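> Could you send the Cephalosporin-C deacetylase prediction when you get a chance?

Sure thing. Input:
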Amino acid sequence: MFTDLSEEQLRAHRSAVREPDDFDGFWQGTLAQARAAGSAVRAEPVAAGLSAVDVLDVTFAGFDGQPVRGWLRLPRNAPTPLPTVVQYAGYGGGRGHPLENLLWAAAGFAHFQMDTRGQGSGWSRGDTPDPATAGPEAPGVMTRGIADPRSYYYRRLITDAVRAVDAVRTLPMVDPGRVAVLGQSQGGGLALAAGALATGVRAVVAHVPFLCDIPRGVVVTDARPYREVRDYLAVHRDAEERVLATLAYVDGVNFARRCHLPARYSVALMDEIVPPSTVYAAVNAHAGPTELSVWRYNGHEGGGIDDDAAALRFLREHLAPDSDPGARPGW
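Output:
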C-alpha cells in the first residue's frame, strides 16, 4: 500500500529540516583534517578469474587517515583513462565479493565500490572496521555517537565517501574529470553528500536515498534504520534537541541544497523503509538539474534493473568526453 502523502502532496513537499549555522565550516574542517591525516592509495590486483574485467583491492585513507577498503573493477584492455563510477553500499552492506556488481565495468566504466566502515555483515560482506568508540547506542549504527556531530558515525562515513572520490581521481586508469557518484538507500544518501562536498564529481545518482529529511523519516515509519533513532529517544527522553541537531549535519536535504550537479533520483511510493516524502524533500531542495523516476507499486527495492538501466543512460550522457558532450565514448 502507499506509505506516505498523496502524489500531489509529495510533489509539493518541502523539508523543515534545520540547517546548522556552521554546516559549511563543519564539513570544510572535517575534510581538511582528513586530508591532512593521510592520502596514500594502494591498489593490488586480485585473481578474480574473470576474462573481461580486472579487479584491484584498493585501500585509501578515509576519516582521520584511517584505512578504508574498496574494489576497483576495470574493463580489460579498455583505453584509459576511463570515466569512473564511485558506488556506495546500502545500510548493512559492504563492498561485497570481487565477483559481484559487474555492471559498470561491463559497460565500460572504471567502477569503485567503497566498503562501509563497521557494516558489511547484514546482506553484503565488508572488511573495514569503525575503530571509534562513541557512547551508548541503539542496535545498528544509526545512533552511534549521535550525542555530538563530531563523534557521530555518519561524519566518519561521509568523510570516507568524499575521500573515496579523492583517492580514485589519483589513479592513472581514471579520468579525474569524468567521475560520478552512485548509490541506493544509504548509498544514495552518501552519493548526495559526496556530490555536494567532493571535488571533481560530474553527476550524482541517488536511488531511494536514505538520510534525507531525517526528522520526518523518524516519525512516519516504524521500519529500521529510522526506527533506531526512535528507539534511542524512547530511552534518552531528554536528548531530542541534541539528537536532531546532530542529524542536521548529515541530512541529505542540506547536501541537496548545496549540490549543483545534475542528479538522477528514484522514489518508490510503497517504500516503508525510506518514506517517499523524504526523497521528495531532497529532490525539491536540489540546487542543480534533476530527473526522477517514480515507482508507484514498488517498495524499497525501487525500480531494480530499470533504475540501473536509467542510471546507465544518465551516466553515459554526463560522463561523455568534454570534447563532445553528446558523444558516447566507445561503450
